[in-house]
Design brief:
Blueprint: E1 8-12, H1 19-30, E2 38-43, E3 48-53, H2 59-68, H3 70-74, E4 78-81, E5 87-90, H4 99-107, E6 116-122, E7 127-132
Antiparallel strand pairs: 1-3, 1-4, 2-3, 5-7, 6-7
Protein name: PAR14 polymerase
InterPro entries: Nucleotide-bd_a/b_plait_sf, RRM_PARP14_2
Pfam families: RRM_PARP14_2, RRM_PARP14_3
C-alpha cells in the first residue's frame, strides 16, 4: 500500500512559517536535505506548500511525524498526502496553443504524460485543464 502512497505531502496554513523556516523544519523532521532529497513548492494564493520527495521515503509515516511535531503544531500547520488527480492545470500558455498540441504534448511519455481524455482551453487566462484517462499520467 505505501508503494502507492503519494511522494508529495501538502502543508496547509503555512502563513506563520517563512519559506526558509518551512524548509529547515521539513529537513529536521525528515532527516533529509532540501534540493537533494525533496523539493518544496509554495502556493501562497491558497496558503499551501507541497513537499515532493525525490528520495523514496514512507510519506504516510512522515505525515504522522509532522502532525505530532511540536513546531508544526505551534505554527498551526497541517500535513496530508497529496491525493492523486486525473486533471492538471497548465498555465502561462502561448495564445496560439491548440488543444491538439496540448493533447500530444501531455500524452508524451518523455514528458511524464499518459493517455489524455480531455483538454479544456481557457484562452482569456492563457491556461488549460488537461484530464488524463488515469492518475498515473500526470506526474
Amino acid at each position: 500500500d505505501s508503494a502507492e502512497a503519494s511522494p508529495s505531502v501538502v502543508f496547509e496554513n503555512i502563513e506563520r512559517c517563512s519559506p526558509n523556516c518551512l524548509q529547515m523544519l521539513l529537513e529536521n523532521i525528515s532527516g533529509l536535505t532540501v534540493a537533494a532529497d525533496f523539493t518544496v513548492e509554495l502556493i501562497p494564493e491558497i496558503n499551501v506548500a507541497v513537499a515532493t520527495f525525490i528520495k523514496n521515503i514512507d510519506t504516510k509515516e512522515f505525515v504522522e511525524k509532522c502532525s505530532q511535531h511540536k513546531r508544526v503544531r505551534e505554527f498551526k500547520m497541517t500535513a496530508r498526502l497529496l491525493e492523486s488527480t486525473q486533471s492538471i492545470r497548465a498555465e502561462n500558455l502561448p495564445e496560439s496553443i491548440s488543444t491538439d498540441y496540448l493533447t500530444v504534448y501531455f500524452e508524451s511519455t518523455r514528458n511524464g504524460g499518459g493517455p489524455v481524455s480531455d483538454v479544456q482551453l481557457f484562452p482569456e487566462e492563457n491556461s488549460a485543464i488537461i484530464t488524463f484517462l488515469d492518475h498515473k499520467g500526470n506526474s
